[in-house]
User: Which sequence fits this backbone?
């Protein structure tokens, strides 16, 4: 059996690490992660050559500047990494004649819509991170049509830093935690994102249909506020004899951050299911699975 070579940008991110794990379990795919010093997204001029040297069947653009608050004071760097370099990755994939899967974000929207966002809804980022990721989407669309941009949201996993791991850590020393209750989204496991990317990647390689290409939304099924997400994390942890705390729901006005977050981060994922047959699991199921994995 011929194995497909999927080259993914980054070495340590949640999605990259999940792809390495899930790709390793797939007998038909070889995951090749490329990052610094071979690939430095802060130096866009060297990106194309680094990608082309890997001889991929598919390129996955997963690495990003994801420090949302920090991006407010270093927007130039965020734009180089998330915007300009995304375009350079797309150019490299186009020159090689291979498809590109690019991971994007709900932060391209302003969160004012009362319903889940569809792919063709107007974009209006609230901050530097969202602007930089939108710049990446636009750069890709200018240089190739052989791509799938996958917008996701509220990513958590057993790896790196994320909300789920933070809640478990804080519950080890606190009985009550105040958590924002007026921002709503779709909690999404990076392991589920990885499975979705592998499926989309296979489809792009085997089928040149235009309907498989373009912008798609890919999140866990179901929605929650951050407070509800935290409550579910602690419910699962308590079940497995792990740390838990009471959740005190608060408005976002009581937890100010440098970057403004969308009040509504919910994404409608029906287009992805219709085109690619991909639907991620219910977020509660994935949350329980990851909590169990993290506990002793």
Assistant:
């Amino acid at each position: 059996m011929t194995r497909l070579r999927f080259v993914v940008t980054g070495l340590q991110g949640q999605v990259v690490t999940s792809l390495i794990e899930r790709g390793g379990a797939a007998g038909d795919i070889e995951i090749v992660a490329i990052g610094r010093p071979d690939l430095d997204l802060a130096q866009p001029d060297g990106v194309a050559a680094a990608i082309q040297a890997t001889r991929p069947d598919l390129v996955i653009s997963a690495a990003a500047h994801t420090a949302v608050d920090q991006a407010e004071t270093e927007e130039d760097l965020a734009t180089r990494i998330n915007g300009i370099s995304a375009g350079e990755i797309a150019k490299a994939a186009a020159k090689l004649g291979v498809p590109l899967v690019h991971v994007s974000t709900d932060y391209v929207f302003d969160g004012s819509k009362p319903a889940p966002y569809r792919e063709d809804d107007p974009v209006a980022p609230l901050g530097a991170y969202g602007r930089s990721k939108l710049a990446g989407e636009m750069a890709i669309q200018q240089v190739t049509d052989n791509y799938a941009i996958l917008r996701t949201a509220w990513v958590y996993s057993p790896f790196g830093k994320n909300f789920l791991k933070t809640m478990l850590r804080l519950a080890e020393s606190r009985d009550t935690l105040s958590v924002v209750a007026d921002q709503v989204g779709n909690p999404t496991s990076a392991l589920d994102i990885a499975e979705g990317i592998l499926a989309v990647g296979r489809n792009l390689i085997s089928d040149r249909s235009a309907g498989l290409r373009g912008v798609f939304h890919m999140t866990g099924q179901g929605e929650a506020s951050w407070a509800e997400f935290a409550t579910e994390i602690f419910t699962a942890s308590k079940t497995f004899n792990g740390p838990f705390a009471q959740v005190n729901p608060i408005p976002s006005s009581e937890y100010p951050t440098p970057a403004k977050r969308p009040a509504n981060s919910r994404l409608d994922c029906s287009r992805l299911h219709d085109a690619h047959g991909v639907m991620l699991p219910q977020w509660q199921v994935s949350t329980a699975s990851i909590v169990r994995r993290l506990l002793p």
Residues 93 and 289 are 35 Å apart (CA to CA). The two ends are 38 Å apart (CA to CA). The chain has a mean pLDDT of 96.
